[in-house]
Amino acid sequence: MMKSLRRLAAIAALGALVFGFTGCDQEEGNSRLIPEVVSFNENAPLASDVWHLNGTPDDPFDDYVPIDWAEIVIKARVADPALALSTNTPFGNLHFTSYRVQFIDGVNSGGADLNGDGTIDLENYEAPMNLMVPAGGTAVGAIEIVPIQAKLESPISDTRGGGTYRTSAIVTFIGKEETSGRDIETTRGLDVTIGNLADE
Fold first, then answer.
1. How many domains does the chain have?
2. Contact, 165 vs 197, CB < 8 A?
3. What pLDDT, in 10s, does the model give residues 27-74?
4. Cα separation of 197 and 38, whole Å?
5. What is the largest CA-CA distance in the chain?
6. Is residue 62 part of a domain?
7. Residue 4 domain flag
8. Among 32, 38, 47, 167, which residue has the least CB neighbours within 10 Å?
9. Nearest CA among 117, 92, 93, 94 for reference residue 107
10. How far apart are CA 60 and CA 52, in angstroms?
């Protein structure tokens, strides 16, 4: 009887061990890939230009409001190299599908009041993106920080005549680890200067 119980216990322990090895990399709570931001806007503050003269200052009809594209380089670092699979398999991707921008002024939770009149001039927002990062590799994307619509409205549009505003942004990149479906987020900060900056 004692031998039978020991045998059953050994079989149960072996089964648990085998299940642990075969099932551990399917557990959604474990991160097999860790997003690592290699650089964001080339690790520099963002200079957000509100008006571009297009190289012909005497011709106002070809001037335009430029879009800020902040480059993001993300690496999918493998948490445990022993679990790494081929980058051609679904496991080999982190898929970022959206990003969230929170503007900071130290007072408002919904965005930034740039001119101090009590009204939020830059509202927090979330926007779609599509960036696939292979396991152990890197991928390059670009996102907009200051929405072009905000540059068309006062007080930001008023800086065409001079002056600048400064704020900070917290940007969160949101996605999933494929196959496991685990939610992935990584956050970075960015200083932002807004105004009619010198055109190249």
1. 1
2. no
3. 334 557 899 999 999 999 999 999 988 777 677 777 889 999 999 999
4. 27
5. 100
6. yes
7. no
8. 38
9. 117
10. 10
